[in-house]
Structures are given as C-alpha cells and as structure tokens.
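#lab-general

N.A. 3:47 PM
ok so I finally got the sequence cleaned up, no stray characters, all 280 residues accounted for. can someone with queue access submit it? mine expired

B.Y. 3:52 PM
send it over

N.A. 3:53 PM
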Amino acid sequence: MESHELFSALFDALNAKTAQEKCALTQEIWQNFSNFSIEHQQAILPLGIPTFAHFCPIVPPHKVPQGKYLKTDLNVAHLLHSVAHIEFSAIDLALDCAYRFRNLPLTFYRDWVEVANEEVKHFLALNALLEILGFRYGDFGVHTLLLDSMKNCNVLLDRIALIPRGMEAVGLDVNPFLCAKVQSSHHAIKRELLETLEIILQDEIAHVSKGNVWFHFVCEQEKIAPKERALKYFEILKNYHFSFPKANAQFNINARLQAGFSAEELKMLENEIFLSQNPK
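B.Y. 4:20 PM
back already:
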C-alpha cells in the first residue's frame, strides 16, 4: 500500500456516511497503520454531523429503548441496539482522539487506532446478533451524549480523563450488570450475547489501560506530580459534570485495578457516588 496521510484518513473515517463505510475505513487504517505518514502541520477540522445521524432517529436519552425485560425478540433487540450504539459511538471517540491531538509519540496514534478497530469488532458482533433477530442498527432511537461530551472536550488531559478513564471505565462497571441481566433470561441468543459481552469487557480493560498510560504521560509532560494526579483526575470529572449511572454505583474494582486505577482514585470515586446518592 502507498504511504497515505494518517489524519486525512482518520477524518474520512470520522465523516463516513454509513456504518459499513466507517467500519471498513477504520479497519483499513489499522491494518495498514505502518504505511501511513504523519504530517502534524495539517489543519484540524471541525467534525460534521455524526455518521449515525444519517440513518438513526435522534431522541432524548430517556426516550432510548433499553430492553428492560428480556422476554421477547424486541426486548433483546432494544438492549442490543442500545449497546451497539455505545460501541459505534466509541469508534468515533477513539478515531477523534487520534485525529484531534498532534505532536505526540507514534504509539499514541497506534493505540487509539487499535482501540477504534476493536470497537468496530464489538459493533459488528452486536449488529450481527441484531440481524439474527430481524433488526439492524438504525431501527431504534439513539442519543448523542457520548459524541456531545467528546466535542466539548478538546484539551488532551481532560479528554483522556473524561473518555477512556471516565466513560469507558463506567463500561467496566456496567458490564457485569448487563451479564447478570442476560444470564437471568431464557432467550435463544443468550449464550452468544454473553460471549460477546465478555469479549467487550476484556477489550475495554485494555482500552482504559491505554487511557491510564496516556493520562500519566500527559501529567508528566505538564509536571503534575504523581501524588497530585488523583486529585487532578477527580477535578476534571467534576469540571465536566461527569456522573455515574445510578444503577451501577457498584464499581468493578478488579477490572478498574487491572486497567490501572489507583486505590486512592477508587476511594475518591466511591465517596462521590455515596455522597451523591445520600445527600444531607
């Protein structure tokens, strides 16, 4: 493959018009990463509308069907679609992290392109299960919360704290909750869905771990002492009004520790959850 400019390829993937195009372009970037050149002087362009807005109805978050009870194909399809949308949005979160921030080590770009490629894998697996049930991504309403948070966070340290070490880390907490919900059902695709959720959990631990590495890298660059980093992380989350889902106040401690969270950070986050749910 000829040498191509990485940031142009990332921008094209971010602005793809269909899910198939976005997935294919992302996979191509990852498979041919070593053939791409990096020109840091290229302008950083604003993003257009998200890919999913071309074929998904956009609704308020509380209107997104969640699949509360997994009794029928439609119930399971609602759950699958909701999770598939998170994974599809996560492709853009990773692509944009690689596109928007410049003059960083090559491993930074490789890490986030790899993450984007793995989010493609998750999305395609979930969409395949949707299609088994006679549905597809775009059949139900979706929200823009993840993309809105991304667009409002263009400082590198803040982005790393908020996305991989914030939102993706919440995915580590939610995963066991989802698995328990699926495990208690009797639906025909129960086994396949549980296997997919397990793959997602293991990959997401690695994604959050990458976020941990780059969070500390940027802290080092900005001369934020190790003993001050937990407070800095917590300060960033509060600045962006980050909140955890009430249903998942229980942290996945083992997964978060594997991903590089410190005991101090976990204690601070647990205290915040307790205080938010038990106001004076």
